[in-house]
Specification:
21 strands; EC 4.1.2.63; alpha/beta; thiamine pyrophosphate; 6-stranded parallel beta sheet
């Protein structure tokens, strides 16, 4: 009789499901689980906070299509991971969280870190369960992995009591579960596809919106063929950037407001009509707009705006269906229409405005100057991780993505603190693929503060991530050192200092240097270019550029959309 522990069963079950990465923070009762997964060849990455660990695991799921695991201790450890689970669910990214819990014979007795973990996780996951026995562990883990990637992807939770981790059972009694196959893909109803094609052919001002669902479904080749075959303008959502290159001649991101406002037919590919797309409603959208909605989730169809045509199915397959129709009966939207001229006019005007702001040579720099110089030096194939307020919004427009799944940001949930966890995940995935693609994490100084200690994780594992902290001394805006000193002379800063302010000119670069990475303190465009080039040349360690900008720097003035403009649609 060969006995096996619960920790070994968990490790072998995860290995059987082709799990490659585990992120977490160990402690009682899950130390043995982390050791066991390493024993079967799964990479374990020790993080500094459970939130960041869960963010990293979910990013691996998005980048690879297969979930990674977040391992946490009981009670507070799991509670810290709930933010990552909620973020994964909102983003529709697969992740499996395994949480240790108090021993079964101590339930309701006030055990160490006792908490109703299975019940709590049901609010933040697609599936939440505790195996009833050691023998049942493989089947529960298989279901968690399968549930995380089937249908609309999301988070799943498996609870393991402390006594189950170390308990032993005869290996012959354990019910092995084979690896779940890739998710089944579905096609839209042929009649609906025909209706969508007919509607597109009669549109006067069409627009394709490419969401991160198209990126997740690996639909980049099909979407690009559809856009180019039919001559359609397209607009990517923030993480839909790169499905088609941002510098593609048919990308109208620089005329986003006009494109959304005046389009008469919108093809929605794996994007939701939520806050990111202004709910699809006036005054940001034409009230008569016809929406052709393509989504994998039936419940999503019709949210906020009833679609003129609903195409339920896998994005890649549904776009292939549309292509089949256009190949049989060719149609192309002409490039000399008033719609194309209007979009290009607005794009050129916005680009001129951004270039004018970027050309400012004054010090401290503004956002546009910083991003102009960064954009000139970044490799075209790098993965860009971005979070912050203005840092993320302006960076989205100026830092181009040319490859799919090469932008990670605050996402649907608008979560701050995701950046460093995402960057660690991307660096590990790229290292495993041996693609030599750089990971560049562009952060606001406030956003960096949420998970800044993960720079130690980067240094420990020698991950050559480049972090660029765009430092304006605050949340949205800050004050300069002189103003801060004057505020201090006026009395208690807790009653005087604006709530948005942070310590002026904080030395975030020294945090990185303290752990053995490179740190650069940057004030001028020349210093920025020199430091960034040094970082790009160094593949041995992580780097951090602490880039000081004008605390009052802001986005260019955004257009106010008058309801009267809708008449022109």
């Amino acid at each position: 009789m060969e006995e096996i522990t619960g920790a070994q069963i968990i490790a072998e079950a995860l290995k059987a499901q082709n799990v490659e990465y585990m992120f977490g923070i160990v402690g009682v009762p899950v130390i043995e689980v982390a050791m066991a997964v390493q024993g079967v060849g799964i990479k374990y990455v020790g993080m500094r906070n459970e939130q960041a660990a869960c963010y990293a695991a979910s990013a691996v799921g998005y980048l690879t299509g297969r979930p990674a695991v977040c391992l946490v201790v009981s009670g507070p450890g799991l509670i810290h991971a709930l933010g990552g689970m909620a973020n994964a669910n909102m983003n529709c990214w697969p992740v499996v969280v395994i949480g240790g819990s108090s021993d079964q014979n101590q339930e309701t007795m006030g055990a160490f870190q006792e908490f109703p973990q299975v019940e709590a996780c049901r609010l933040y996951s697609k599936f939440s369960a505790r195996p009833s026995s050691l023998e049942a562990i493989p089947s529960v883990i298989e279901k968690a992995v399968r549930s995380s990637i089937y249908g609309r992807p999301g988070a799943c939770y498996v609870d393991v009591s402390g006594d189950m981790v170390t308990a032993r059972v005869d290996r012959a009694r354990v019910r092995a579960a084979p690896c779940c196959p890739p998710p089944p893909v579905s096609l839209a109803h042929p009649k609906a596809v025909t209706e969508a094609v007919a509607m597109l052919k009669t549109s006067k001002q069409p627009l394709v919106i490419v969401g991160k669902g198209a990126a997740y479904s690996r639909a980049e080749d099909e979407v690009q063929e559809l856009v180019e075959l039919c001559g359609l303008p397209f607009l990517p959502t923030p993480m839909g950037k790169g499905v088609l290159p941002d510098d593609h001649p048919q990308c109208v991101a620089a005329a986003r407001s006009r494109a959304l406002l005046q389009a008469d037919v919108v093809v929605l590919l794996g994007a939701r009509l939520n806050w990111i797309l202004h709910f699809g409603l006036p005054p940001r959208f034409n009230p008569q707009v016809k929406v052709i909605q393509v989504d994998i989730c039936a419940e999503e169809l019709g949210n906020n705006v009833k679609p003129a045509v609903a195409l339920l199915g896998d994005i890649r397959n549904v776009v292939s269906q549309l292509l089949g129709c256009f190949r049989k009966d060719a149609w192309r939207y002409q490039s000399d229409t008033m719609w194309w001229r209007s979009l290009k006019e607005k794009m050129n005007a916005n680009e001129r405005m951004s270039k004018a702001l970027a050309a400012h040579s004054s010090v401290p720099m503004n956002y546009y100057t910083v991003f102009h110089h960064i954009a000139e030096l970044l490799p075209h194939d790098c993965i860009i991780v971005s979070e912050g307020a203005n840092t993320m919004d302006i960076g989205r427009t100026m830092l181009y993505n040319r490859l799919p799944r090469h932008r990670l940001d605050a996402g649907t949930f608008g979560t701050m603190g995701v950046g460093l966890g995402f960057a660690i995940a991307a660096a590990l995935v790229e290292s495993g693929r041996k693609t030599c693609q750089r990971v560049v994490c562009v952060e606001g100084d406030s956003a960096f503060g949420f998970s800044g200690m993960e720079v130690e994780t980067m240094c420990r594992y020698k991950l050559p991530v480049i972090i660029i902290v765009v430092n304006n001394n605050g949340i949205y805006s800050g004050v300069d050192p002189h103003t801060w000193d004057e505020l201090g002379k006026m009395g208690d800063l807790t009653t005087i200092a604006p709530p948005v302010t942070l310590l002026p000119e904080a030395r975030y670069d020294q945090v990185m240097a303290a752990f053995g990475g490179q740190g650069f303190f940057v004030r001028t465009p020349q210093e920025l270019r020199s430091a960034l080039q040094l970082c790009l040349d160094d593949w041995e360690r992580p780097s951090l550029l602490n880039v000081l900008i004008d605390p009052a720097s802001d986005r260019k003035q955004q257009p106010w959309v008058s309801p009267e403009l809708l008449i022109e649609c």
